[in-house]
Structure formats: C-alpha cells, structure tokens
Specification:
Blueprint (H helix, E strand, L loop, with lengths): L6 H5 L3 H5 L11 H4 L4 H5 L3 H6 L2 H6 L10 H5 L3 H6 L2 H6 L2 H6 L8 H5 L3 H6 L2 H4 L12 H4 L4 H4 L4 H5 L3 H4 L4 H4 L4 H6 L2 H4 L4 H5 L3 H4 L4 H6 L2 H6 L2 H6 L10 H5 L3 H5 L3 H4 L4 H4 L4 H5 L9 H6 L2 H5 L3 H6 L2 H6 L2 H6 L5
Length: 333
C-alpha cells in the first residue's frame, strides 16, 4: 500500500504516524515519495528507522532535505547508506552533520572527489583514520596537501607509509612537523627522499635524532644537504658514526661547521678521510677528534688544518700524531 500513497497523503502524515512506521514499512517508500517528506517528518524518524532505509532511498533525498536531518540521524548512517550519498548531498551537509558522520571511508570516490576545501578542513581525525591501509590514497594529492597535523594525528604508521609518493610530496610542511614518532619511524628512506626541502626542513630535531639506521644511511645526497643546523645539532653522538663516509663527504662546509665537539669525537677515520681541505678547515672543533682517530688520518688531513685549528689540538692529540704527520705540517702551522 505504501508505494501507492500520493504526495498529498504523505504530506498529511503527522510526526507520530511517521514514528510509528515499522522497519518493514520504511523500505517500501519509493524514491519519489522520499523526496516529499518535510523536515519535520524526516526528523521524526528514529535511528532504527533511518537504518532501515535502503541506500537508494538515502540517495533520493534532495539537497534541501539533507540539512534537515539531525546529527544523531546522520551519525547512524550505515556503510551502505554512506556509499549511496552523492557528491551534491555531501556538500549539502551542515558542518555539524559533516563532523558527525560515521563510516566516513564508505563514501564513494565521487563523493570524496567532490569535497570542498571547507569540507576537507572539517574532517575529524577519527574519520580520516577510518581509511584502512592504502585506501587513504582515495584522496587526491591536492586534498592530502590540505590535511592538518591534527587531522592526520590518528593515522597509523602503516596508513601514513601507504601514501603514494605524489601524496607524500604534497603534505603541508606544518603537517610534517606534527608527525608522531610511529608515523615518522614507519617511513622508508626512499619515502623521506621524496620530501621537498620545505618538508624535510620542518622535521623536528627530536624526530631526526630518532632516524633508524636504514633511514639515516638511505638519505640521498640532496637530503643530506637539507639537514639544517637545528637538525644536525639534535643528533646524538651515537648517530654520527652511522652516516656513511659518502654522506659525510657531501655535507657542506656550513653543515660541518656547526657540528658539536662531542659529535666530532665520534667520527671515524673513514668518514674524515673523505673530507676536502675546505671541509676539514670548516670543523670548528678539531680538538674533538679522538687521538686514536687523528693518528690514523693521512698527512693531507693534518696538513689542511688552519693555524687556528692546530692551536686547538690537545696535548693528547699532538702526542698521538705519527712522525710523518708532524712532518706534513707547514712552517706556518
């Protein structure tokens, strides 16, 4: 009988009559009939009745009717109902309705693609985290670039690392700065090498000091060169020997100049051996080199010291120098 109700008949149904409809009767309304319901009639539906609506019935609601639904009603939408929402309907939600949506990852690709910048800014951390694994890539790179650190805070390391390279490179530097330890630790060196200079430079010193051996040794020349003073100074002494000799060799004189004495103290002979004259002379604390390591360096290394650097050498260092190293010093040194 319900499918034969006229628009006039439906319009005269009271809120009490709507509320009395059973979950067997609810699915019988046609798409055309669904579009007749007034705001008051729609609001009379309980969450149990809402759950009984077929996805097609949800999809039939007009963009004028959508805002009439209560936040309690929209929060009860099933995965099937969420998937049936059109881009236009999603756009019609009020901000309160939008942030109340559960099963957010069930939205269709078309609905996600249609999200405005305002919509993207409304997405809650728990809504974003509902995109399991690589399904986070259903958002475009441009959309991912609009997510804040607050929004991505609930993403697991696995979700974060499932982002494709173009999406990783699109993340706002301020969001990169908000990465959690688990998110940062899950990234591979190859993924870190995708970061732009602005992104890489926004990584906190705390996280830089938590680089895994694989991450640290996997950084390419460009990203070694991106390490800023704050990041370099945050590295514990135990991190310095992990750099490959090649990585130490591609550091700029400006980078080498800011290394602390305690950091220089852990550099190996293999790392020091790759330094050019300009790089050696950039070391602010040559007295940090251990006597044992200094004794292993070649004659060209000690010959490159400036007079100021030679003056900084400790008695223990000079005592450890080999005869041929001492002979390599110039008269000025």
């Amino acid at each position: 009988q319900i499918p034969f109700f006229s628009a006039t008949a439906l319009g005269t149904m009271s809120a009490a009559q709507i509320a009395a409809l059973t979950t067997t009767q609810i699915p019988a309304f046609t798409s055309a009939q669904m579009q007749v319901f007034s705001a008051a009639q729609l609001q009379a539906l309980s969450t149990t009745q809402i759950a009984a609506l077929l996805p097609a019935q949800i999809a039939a609601l007009t963009t004028t009717q959508i805002p009439a639904l209560t936040t309690t009603q929209v929060s009860s939408f099933t995965t099937g109902q969420m998937g049936a929402l059109t881009a236009a309907q999603v756009q019609a939600f009020t901000s309160d309705q939008f942030t109340a949506l559960n099963n957010f990852s069930s939205l269709s690709d078309a609905a996600l693609a249609g999200l405005s910048s305002t919509d993207l800014g409304l997405i809650q951390p728990w809504q974003l985290s509902s995109f399991a694994g690589s399904t986070i890539n259903r958002f475009s790179a441009a959309q991912v670039g609009q997510f804040s650190g607050y929004q991505t805070s609930w993403l697991s390391g696995a979700q974060f690392t499932s982002l494709t390279n173009d999406r990783l490179a699109a993340i706002d530097p301020q969001t990169i700065a908000s990465l959690t330890s688990s998110q940062f630790g899950a990234l591979s060196a190859a993924q870190l090498n995708v970061f732009t200079a602005a992104q890489f430079g926004s990584i906190s010193g705390y996280l830089i000091n938590r680089l895994t051996t694989a991450q640290q040794t996997g950084l390419d020349d460009a990203h070694i060169g991106m390490l800023n003073t704050g990041q370099l100074n945050s590295l514990s002494s135990s991190k310095m020997p992990i750099f490959t000799p090649h990585q130490i060799g591609v550091m700029s004189t400006a980078q080498l100049q800011v290394l602390f004495k305690t950091q220089i103290a852990t550099l190996t002979n293999a790392q020091l051996a790759v330094l050019s004259t300009a790089q050696i002379q950039a070391l602010a604390y040559p007295d940090g080199i251990t006597p044992a390591v200094l004794a292993q360096t070649g004659d060209p290394f000690v010959a490159a010291f400036t007079t100021a650097q030679v003056a900084r050498l400790t008695a223990a260092q000079t005592a450890a120098l080999q005869t041929h190293q001492v002979a390599a010093f110039s008269a000025a040194q």
